[in-house]
Amino acid sequence: GIQVDFDDGHCPTWRNTVQGLYNVTRAVHARLPGAPADIQECPVLMLRPRAFNMIEHHCMVNGKEVVGPLFDFAILMYHNAKLMSSLDVGPYFYLSKIEGPNETQLWNKIFTWTEHRL
C-alpha cells in the first residue's frame, strides 16, 4: 500500500501541509502527474494524520486553533471521501500514535459521525 504520512514523515509547515493535502486530492481525482490515472489501480491508500499534540496554527474555529489531526482528517474527507467510498478504495486511516482509550473513543466518534454524513 501507499501511506501518505502527515505525522513523522512530514515537516508541518503550512506550505507542506497544504501541498500534501492538495497532492492527495489530485491523486484521488486522477490529476497528479506520475500517479495512476485510476485510483482503483493503486494499492491501498492509507492516510496518516498528525498526532493530537500537533496544532494547526493556520486554521481557527470559534477563535481557537484547530488540532492538527482533525484538520488533516477534515480536509482529506471533504475533498476525497465520497469518491474514494464510491470506488470502494477507502478512505483508510493509519492512527499510529493513539495514546489511550479516550483518544481511541474520540476517533471512533469522529469516524462514526463522518460515516453518517457520507
Automatic annotation (TrEMBL):
It comes from Culex pipiens (House mosquito). Gene3D superfamilies: Malate synthase, domain 3. Residues 44-117 form the Malate synthase TIM barrel domain. InterPro entries: Malate_synth_sf (IPR011076), Malate_synthA (IPR006252), Malate_synthase_TIM (IPR001465), MS_N_TIM-barrel_dom (IPR046363). GO terms for biological process: glyoxylate cycle. GO terms for cellular component: cytoplasm. GO terms for molecular function: malate synthase activity. This is malate synthase. Transmembrane segments: none annotated.
